[in-house]
Every structure is written in C-alpha cells, then in structure tokens.
DNA sequence: GATGCAATTTGATTGAAGTCAAAGAGCATG
DNA sequence: CATGCTCTTTGACTTCAATCAAATTGCATC
C-alpha cells in the first residue's frame, strides 16, 4: 500500500490524513493535498469496541468519522423498545451528515471498530470548498439508499428462511466483493443483531440457520464462523432469482 | 403565484422552466435564469395516467423528470411476482439519477400524474455546471434515505394495525404538511398498493382499515376518502409515541 | 335504473413465525 | 478444570397474518 502510494504520487505531500494512515477511500480520497494537511491537524484515530455507541438517536452530532476497520450498525428504536437495524456500514464508509445537526438514528459498533474522527466545522468547510467532496458524499447516500430499498423488499416480502439467507449473502458480498464460488467468514453480528436487522426473533433466526446448515447451504463453527460452499445456492435460498 | 413571482423578481427573466410553468421547487428552484432558458428549450410537460410506468426496473433511463402533480410509486419486484413498494414521491420531487444509466426499480404513476421531462444530457450538463443543483439532489437523496429507513422500522417491527395507521399518517402528513388536529383526504393508493407498501395482503389491509374505522380513529367514504378526526390519535395507533 | 366488472370486505381455516421455557455451548474468570 | 455468565439452540404451544372462498360495494356503461 505504502509503495503504491509512492509510485503514484512520487512526492512528500500526504495523500491521506495522518490518522487514517495508509488507507485510501472515504473522505480522504477526494481531497487536495492542502486539504489533507489541514484535516490531519484535527483528525484523530479512535478505537470503538463492540456494543459502544458512535452517535445516539436524537443526539446532537459534534463530529464525523470515516470507518477504517470493523462494522457499524445503524438502528432505530421505538418507545417500547422494539428495534430495527436500518443499515450496516463497512470501511471506508463515512458516518455523519454535514449541516445536519441531529441524528435520526443510533450508530453503534457491531464489532470492534476503528474510526478516523473529524470535528464538525472542519468537514463542513471542506464540503463547501470542494464540490468533489459533496459528490463523494452524494454517491454514498445513493448507495445507502439503494441498499435500504433492497432491504425493504427483504423485510416486507421475504420468508424467514429467505431473510436469513439474504443476510448471510449480504455479509458475504460486503466482506469479499470478488465473488468466488465458495467463501468462509466471521459473522460481524450476534443472533440478536441479526434478528433486529431481519425483523425476526432470535429463536427464528437460530432455527433458520440450523435449517440452512442441515440443508447443506452453509456450515457453521463456533456460532460465528460461516462457510458458504456455493454462493449461487445461497443466493437462490435468498430468493434472488 | 404569478403575482408573487413578479413581486420578488420584478423582471422578465424566467424563474421556472416553460413546461413547469408557475411551479417552483424541484430542479428549477436552484437554476440560474440562463440555465432555465436552456432547460425550457428541451423540457416537455407530460401527463401520466394512474398505472402507467415512468421507468421500468432494469431499463435504461433516457430522461429525468420533476413531478408537478400526483403521486409516483417506486417498487421492486421478485422473480416470482412478489412486490414491494419502496417509496412514494410527491411534487416537487425529482425522478432519476444523473450519471446512473440503469434504474434498479420501477417508477409508476399511482394517481394521474403530471411531470416535467428533460432529456438526460441536459440535466447532466446542468449538474456539472451548478454545484447548487447537485446540492439539491443530494438533499433529496438524504430525505429519501431517511424516509426509507423510517419505513424499514415499520416493515420490520410494527404490527399490521400499526402499519396501516402508519401509512394513513404518512399520506396525511405528505398531502398537508401543516398539521391541524383533523384532516380529510383522498387516498392516492388502492388497497393492493397499500398492501405492497406495507408488506401485507389486501385482506389484512382491509380488515385493519375496518378496525380503525370501528375504533373511531378514521372515517371512510367511497373507499378512498379518509377523514382523520384526531391526528395525534392516529399517530399513537401508528406506534409513534 | 339495470348490467357487468373490478375493487373491497367479510368469513372460515391454515400456517409461519412468535412466545415461553428449558437445555446446551462457548468463553471468560478464579 | 470447575464456576458463572452470556449466547445460542431446541421444544411445546400460541397467535397473528396469510390463504382460500364467497359476498358486497362502487362505478362505468348501456
């Protein structure tokens, strides 16, 4: 990564902020060297452990962050405690909205996570200066919108079996975008989180996982380690035909 | 409206495109007079009757449009015919995405609709020229994202009763944003569409409407005309505490 | 106002997912 | 390696919404 950076730019100006270190993508990817120098002065790298909140529902948002590592879950909660996960964010996604000061949802680390945090005024100034950056954020919003709408179809019209398969497929494709025929990965969510993402109960998720295992669509070790021998078969089980 | 326009601008330059006529908002609202002149040369006003497609799922998109009047439903369909409405668009929303050439969903008129249509290259040039316009589209995308996520909570975690009440509340607030205590309106969707929006069957929607009527939360005339005597009560029935 | 058709409602029954309860695994800690 | 804890699975039973099957209503047309 470091080598590539040198090859392309062949100079001493930074191409990522100090806190992000060698990671491209996210906000850093579209800034000028001068903007990166400025950003580096105010950004800090932070570790957020699984289960900790990044931003609470209804809270004032004082900072923005790039995800460097791990998975963040975005969720909404009703007054009586019913909860729905409305999105998952992976590196190098951006958390927070310039010029919107109140969050309508809770962002919480699903796994242990590393983020690069900037103060609000800095990122807002960069957005005003750089139409590139707004374009980048606009594109992420459109990607999130597409994902949200795909998930609405899953929530509204799929069976419990298809929902669980859809979830396993979604995670697989996000963790490894080059799709081979088979793959093995660590689930970033507990059964309770999966249930909240799928609009099901823990017990139903468990039963459907067992069924998919018995049918040979997946193998499971230690509750979290999933092997998908045939991605196309999983996709079919998810109802994506 | 025309009078207001004159008062504010006091000149002969257009403030909306020819086809949109006196309507502000949507794309027109953020363009310069020169851009509006340019846009007017290529835009056409079009009537789309209820049930007709504006853009089909997977089709190449050759144009963009502003909704002037009526309601457009955005939906996704599975191979076996199961359908989910993933969004409703009202005037003056914009339909279409600059630089994305394939639609991932179907846009269909729910009611008789009027739209102002522009060819793709025109709007893409205007977006490149005007950061204002991208900002406007970005904001609409964020609004749609918020609405999609709110609806995910409804789809995943609410009961049939709460879903139907949520729908009636959603339509009421979109058709008349100044919320009085009571209101009467024409439903823009059939029972079948409501079912597809809520992830329910027609029969369940009907039963829950009947129940809300018998409980005095709403009154219904001629299937489509709904009166809500107490919006707060409807909101509570929708689970929005 | 009678006719025909689609949209909506209502009823009887079934079934998928939820609830309640208990047992079993996984994983830290002393 | 026993202890205590949480997380997950499994089992028995219930319930809410789906399905299947008529009625009924609304509405355009003759």
UniProtKB/TrEMBL annotation, chains A, B:
SMART domains according to UniProt: cNMP (SM00100), HTH_CRP (SM00419)
GO CC annotations on file: cytosol
Domain HTH crp-type: residue ranges: 158-232
Keyword Metal-binding: no
Coiled-coil ranges (or none): none
UniProt KW keywords: DNA-binding, Nitrogen fixation, Transcription, Transcription regulation
Short name of any one Pfam family annotated for the protein: HTH_Crp_2
Protein name: CRP/FNR family transcriptional regulator
